[in-house]
Design brief:
Elements: H1 2-26, H2 30-52, H3 59-78, H4 87-110, H5 113-116, H6 121-150, H7 159-187
Length: 188
């Protein structure tokens, strides 16, 4: 069922972004057109993985992924919500949760089901939380490197922007990691 939902969400998002890319290209709005083309690529990734591989993703991960894409690409970049100030922080909160869900999916694929009964719920918390925070750090390294190497302005507020982003990623990952650890403890 989640495979069908993944394919459907991907197709809807790709179609939405393709229409936007066409409209903005005909209106000579090159930046918005490029963001929409990026949306097509990002939206197609879950479709390609679901259609051509046997990988199955947790439904919360897929839903959060598309909420994040819509929020960052359409609302943030195309509609200009990044200018609100708090929007970037909110998206980092969501990305921390997405990374935590990805950590859960990775954990479930790496650990044998029977072994999971013996593993401490605190270890599960630590793994998921660390995975989410690490992903946030890698993203900030990307932003810093892009700014330095390509003269971009991804870190608009410098050190403050970086720290606020990392704190938001940490909080998002923490909430999901705590929920996962509690769920694991209750199952035992």
């Amino acid at each position: 069922m989640s495979r069908k939902i993944t394919i459907a969400l991907s197709l809807v998002y790709v179609l939405f972004m393709a229409i936007l890319a066409f409209v903005y290209k005909t209106d000579d709005e090159d930046f918005k057109s490029l963001v929409a083309i990026g949306g097509i690529v990002c939206g197609a990734i879950p479709f390609l993985l679901a259609f051509f591989t046997k990988l199955q993703f947790n439904l919360p991960l897929i839903i959060f992924y598309f909420v994040f894409l819509f929020g960052s690409q359409y609302l943030g970049s195309i509609r200009g919500w990044y200018g609100l100030g708090w929007w970037d922080t909110f998206l980092h909160l969501i990305s921390g949760a997405i990374l935590a869900f990805a950590g859960i999916a990775l954990y479930e694929r790496l650990v044998h089901r029977d072994a999971g009964r013996e593993i401490s719920s605190w270890f599960i918390f630590l793994f998921i939380f660390s995975f989410a925070v690490f992903g946030g750090v890698v993203w900030e390294v990307y932003e810093f490197s892009s700014d330095q190497l390509f003269d971009m302005t991804l870190q608009g507020g410098g050190n403050k922007d970086t720290m606020v982003d990392l704190i938001a990623d940490t909080i998002g990952g923490f909430v999901i990691a705590i929920g996962s650890a509690v769920r694991t403890r209750l199952k035992k």
